[in-house]
Amino acid sequence: MKNKLQNYFPIIRTRGEVLEELRENKELWKTFCGWKETCQQEYLDLCTGVKGIKLLYDTYFKAIMNPDTRPDRFNDFISEMLGQRVKVLKVLPNESARIAAESSLLVMDVVVQLEDGSIANVEVQKIGYLFPGERSACYSADLLLRQYKRAREELGATFSYKNIKKVYTIVLFEKSGSEFRKFSAELYLHRFRQTSDTGVEINLLQEYTFVCLDIFNNIIHNKDKKIENKLEEWLVFLSQDDPDMIMKLLDRNPEFQKIYEEIYTLCLNMEGMMEMFSKELEIMDRNTVKLMIDEMEEELKQNTQQPKDGQSASPKHMSIRSILGGDILANDFFKRQTRLLILIMILTVLYIDNRYSSQQELIEIDKLKKDLIDIKYDALTRSSELMEKSRQSRIEEYISTEDSPLQTATNRPYLIKKD
To answer: 52: burial class by Cβ within 10 Å (0-12, 13-18, 19+)?
Structure first.
């Protein structure tokens, strides 16, 4: 029996067909069996249309919304985000340095240069960072500095600060921070620009757009709520995996039918699909570990600030002696988090071991590549020498120097027939 999405997209395969193809390929089946049961089920649900695909993850987004190959789609999406029509000129390398490796909670990040020279950074955060305003201001300042340096290098002596264009920072939260949730359960889109309290207009270059997808999803799933505009269409398309919401979107705007057909055509390429899914699993694993560490730090902070009744507060600053002597491990917090600390230690050891193994394999691969190049060059040299020595003129020259009775034939060869 067909599910809801299979009625819209006949190319979607059944669960049996997907499993059969996996079993026929030993490598794919080995990878599939190596996943957790929940991950196996999720993968099958995606490929068979039981659930839609959340396209906000980096590999899926760039496959469908790549600014280089799908500029019309990305132009429309980013224009709706900014509330003005813009056109992407090119994708820029993402060189911005995340503070304290903060990219661990990013699931998508792309930087583009717009037609007017301005820069836009679009990122999706699995979980909203603390201090989103301060962090976004730092990222925006980093992009502004990149643009300044590039303009100085390109224009040289003709450079003017007038050549510096705006920098847009667009952040989508899968789970927004408390600042947004406490402010309103009805507003999911927040745009910021710097203005004067006197009304004087100065071209300050940094603008910000924050989208709280969790608030948007709560609103859009209301039975009486309709998709009202193109921005909401894009947000549903990118963030929703509910088949009912996908069909609701297709009924409102059939233009997305073609994009979904492209998505499910990608699902037919089992090897490519599994590679993308594996990358997303890696991202989610890193996010989970980072979240656990953040929660532990938050609990530690609460314990130090609000000790239980009848207990003295833990000192704010542990002495070096107490740390080196191991007294810090007697803290109630560490006793409660023993299992978590052991898990983190195991993951750390596994990470170091995997990193070391990977480095050794990379060294071996580089060595083999160099050996292969040397062998290829040696084979090419020998082939050239053989070709040179096989030329008729070279053979005749060699025979003449060896006093051999062999001579070059002056008559053409003829065939002797047997009577």
So the answer is: buried
Sign for the pseudo-dihedral over CA of 287, 292, 295, 297:
negative
Greatest pairwise CA separation for the chain in angstroms: 124
| DSSP structure class, residue 406 | -
* Inter-residue contact 91 to 108 (CB < 8 Å): no
**Rounded Cα gap, residues 123 and 62, in angstroms:** 12
Confidence (pLDDT) at 296: 56
Say how far apart CA 59 and CA 107 lie, in whole Å.
Answer: 9
Question: By the 8 A CB rule, do 243 and 51 touch?
Answer: yes
Q: What is the pLDDT of residue 295?
A: 55
CA distance 391 to 229: 76
pLDDT reported for residue 107 = 64
Q: What is the spatial distance between Cα 355 and Cα 353, in angstroms, rounded to a whole number?
A: 5
pLDDT tens sequence across 120-158: 988 888 777 777 888 889 889 988 998 898 889 988 889
Query: CA 28 to CA 26: how far, in whole Å?
Result: 6
Segment 295-354, tens digit of pLDDT: 555 656 665 555 544 444 444 455 666 666 666 666 677 777 778 888 888 999 888 988
What is the b/e burial string over 280-308, where b = at least 16 CB atoms within 10 angstroms of the residue's CB?
A: beebeebbebbeeeeebeeeeeebeeeee
188-241: pLDDT as tens digits? 999 999 889 998 989 899 999 999 999 999 998 886 788 889 999 999 998 888
Name the token pair of 69: 């190959």
Percent residues over pLDDT 70 in the chain = 82
Rg (CA), the chain: 32
Separation of alpha carbons 325 and 310, rounded Å: 26
- Could you tell me which residues are beta bridge partners of residue 209? 170, 191
Q: Is residue 121 a contact partner of residue 143, using CB atoms and an 8 Å limit?
A: yes
Tokens 């507003």 belong to 187
Distance CA 166, CA 203 (A): 9
Interval 7-19 mean pLDDT: 87
In this predicted structure, what is the pLDDT of residue 382? 79
Helix (H) or strand (E) holding 28: helix 26-33
